[in-house]
Amino acid sequence: MEAAGLDAEFMRKLERLTVVARRMFPGQLKGEKRSPRHGSSVEFADFRTYAPGDDFRRVDWNAYARLERLFLKMFHEEEDLHLYLLLDVSESMRFGEPSTKLEVGRRLAAALGYIGLASLDRVAAATFTDRLLGRFRLVRGRRHAHRLFGFLDRAGEPPGEEGVGDTNLAEALREFAVRTRQRGVVVLISDCLDPNGYEAAIQTLVSCQFDVNVVQVLTPEEVAPDLAGDLRLVDAETGETREITVTGALLSAYRGRVEAYCRELRQFCVRRGAGYARLLTSDSLEEFVLQQLRGGGMVG
Amino acid sequence: MNLLNTPALLYLLAIPPVVLLYFLRLRRKDRRVPSTLLWNTSTADLQANTPFQRLRKSLVLFLQILLLALLAFAVARPFLRVRALSGESVVLVIDASASMQATDVPPSRLGAAKTEANRIVGDLSRGDEACVIEAGKRTRVRASFTSNRRVLGSAIGKVVATDTETALRDGLALAVSLAKKRPQAEIVLLSDGAFAPLDDLSLGGERVRFVRVGRQGSNVGITALDARRDYSTRGAVQLFLQITSSSRAATSFALELHHNDTLVDVRPIELPAGGTRAEVFADFPYEAGVVKARLDLRDDLAADNEAYAYLTPRTELKVLVVGEESLFLERALGIDPRVRLSRVSTTDYRPETPADVRVFSGWAPARLPEGGALLVDTSAENAPAEITGRAPVPAVVRWDDRHPVMRHVGFGQVAISEALTLSPRSWGQVLVEGDATPLLVAGKQGGVRAVLLGFRLERSNLPLRAAFPILIQNCLEWLATGSPAVANRSVRTGEAMPLTLAKPGEITSVRGPDGAAWRLTQRDEPLAFDGAEQAGVYVATSPEGQFAFVANLLSASESNLQPRSEVQLGGRAVGSTSALTTANREVWRYLALIGLLILAVEWYVYHRRT
Fold first, then answer.
1. Residues A267 and A49 sit within 8 Å (Cβ to Cβ)
2. What pLDDT does A81 receive?
3. A252 near B CB under 8 A
4. Alpha helices (H) along B449-544
């Protein structure tokens, strides 16, 4: 089974993973569990250290009593875990060499979706720009993987029609939250470069009891631009222009700004109990999933 | 700071187009980026919104405008007024004549001129060149064009003053020819102005600056001394002296006469300010020897306080007349008491018969022997002219009264019935020119001096005119020159003295008044000694014997130490000025250098930025 730019070897590795939820979701039915594992419906998975903003209810007070340090308990989702893959297909995602941010985002979504399907979770996907565009209804079981991959392959296609649009995270995610009844794990795949800000969007999802994970996809050129001369920068989405004269000082100021932006985004997520990871289009997707996401507790 | 080429400032109008071009150049390349979000915030502090601010931020544009303004300014040729010579090449002509020895300015006028010359050399701009010409009686180039100040300084140090008159014509002519080869050359004459006006000197449009050295000088000098045997009074010696004062006050002093270093006469002299006085010593009772006239006083110029005369011993002049008898000629020759006249017929003539002057009348040998010869109505192979025919009734057109033979001789009313037509040889000088033929030709070649009269005396009215005995006397003097009887024993300092004393190959040694010695080798041609630049007695010694002569300054213009505020050069008056005037020194070279520097900085800034 090979699709969506994922090779068989990688897919075999993915099959051993599961999507990790940091919370239990209501409406979970014990009897319907089809996990190969035994035990209670909520299976302990791991601890992680407390970060400001985390839900106090998830603190392991026993551990605190013993060690006087705050730890969060993390659980495997065993049954009826809803995994929502939200893929940004706005114009800004179409940058990047040799793979665009959109292509990398599709493959990441496919990988995560395959993890979910392989561990019998319910998986849905949606693409958005300033609003929700395409939706892939909840499915369960590996047999639906082809359909999911097919949906993802078409995501953002064709450009210039529906796919073209400005990012408006807040509006698109509010729409998603309103139209989605079942709470679950949300993986937001976007560059998060929204002039209106990402705060409202993430806050909306967190407030609606979703377990939010943000994967920020950036190109290396965005992090460390290779520009020279007098330029007029044209925003691919808003058409806004900005005239610059590239100097060493300007470039180092920009790099500093990018790092600060990403740091702020990570802090924002962590404070609200959301996961955050940054993926560069030049990075290896396999490494990213198997090491970064697993290390960050997003998959296990 | 002023500008030579003010209209060039219009080039400044090139600046607005540059600014315009800069705006056009700033039409930036479009570049699509995923988002300008981060650029927005990160460039907020670096980006200027208004064009004016953008200009202010652009160091490159500023440098370009600065460069352009600088270049426009340089093209406008700004200059600074500095005290310097205005020429890029300077010809220094230093007067080294006797009057430059005057001590009215310490240490002497020449010393002051050298100081001034050194200052001029010291003030030369970088790259300027100078040469040094010493103008005494002889002109010497002490240093040819160079910018090496050490060489110029040592050349100036070598200039020495002599007891001679100034021969500034030669020095200035040389300076003009040197200056002509150079653009922007200037001739600087360092002199006291004590020389006769040089009206016939062509300056050829060259700039000449006259720098006067010396102030009011007080001087009395001997300006003329002549000792002659007056043969009309049995050959007694007459001494003639002229004393000239250029002092502003009356002076009184003693005039001493020495004969062979023995004081023989003293006369008290009183001279008014600027006065001239002639003194005559008739019947001077001494025979051969050196007479020294000396003024017993101290003044600013010592060189003219002594003068020398050489008394020649009584001699006779042997004149041999060959050919037909000519009453007029023999009477005229007989006037001179020195003359011992003898006559031979053409058949008895022998070339070896000793004579100081030979007169050939109507006949001449094929070749004239060495010595003087007067040819009347005849010619020879080595005569100054050859006969080509006969011309009836030639009229006198003009005559040359500068030649010694023609001194005080006029041919104004001379009529001639028939003459030879003469064709002068290259060395023959025509003294009297007729309408059809030269009538009187003189010349010297090898050992022969000859005067050729182209007509029989009986066929003209010349013998009846007062000019005739004078002409004959002049001919005798001139033709006998070089024979010991009339040997010249006195020269002006710096002039050449004929010294043909020895046989070819022998050495003649000359000792000067200050002990200086010269050794001269006699060759086939006549020998002349031109080293007599100090006044005094010179003694020449050769195996054939001794020969003494004197050199004198005797120059009224050199003795006159009155300051001259201007000199006459090439028909115009050149006023004295300081050598260093306010000259315009252009500074565009430095501006161009700064421009280059700005260009380099601009290049660096431009490349550092991108």
1. no
2. 81
3. no
4. 467-479
Phi, psi of B67 (to 5 degrees): -60, -45
Nearest-angstrom CA–CA distance, B198 and B165: 14
Q: Which regions in chain B score pLDDT beneath 50?
A: 43-50, 52-53, 485
Please report where in the chains the tokens 């099959």 appear, as a residue.
Answer: A15
Q: Which amino acid is at B17?
A: P
Chain segment B580-590, per-residue pLDDT in tens: 555 667 788 88
| B57 → chain A, closest CA residue | A245
Residues of A in contact with B31 (CB under 8 A): 227, 231-234
Q: Does B44 touch chain A (CB under 8 A)?
A: no
pTM, two decimals, is 0.47
Please give the distance of CA B72 from its chain centroid, rounded to a whole number: 48
Residue A239: which region, alpha, beta or left (left: phi > 0; alpha: psi -120 to 50)?
Answer: left
Interface test with A, best of B40, B42, B56, B60 (most A CBs within 10 A): B42
Phi, psi of B164 (to 5 degrees): -100, 170
Query: pLDDT digits over B231-276, tens only?
Result: 555 667 788 889 988 888 888 899 999 988 888 889 998 888 888 8
H/E segment holding residue A234:
strand A230-235
Alpha-carbon span A285 to B177, nearest angstrom = 93
**Which of B32, B41, B42 lies nearest to residue A234, judging by beta carbons?**
B32
Flag whether residue A260 sits within 8 Å of chain B, measured between CB atoms: no
Using an 8 Å CB-CB cutoff, list chain A residues near B34: 91-93, 95, 101, 191, 193, 219, 222, 236-237
**Checking DSSP bridges between strand B207-212 and strand B185-191, what pairing results, if any?**
parallel
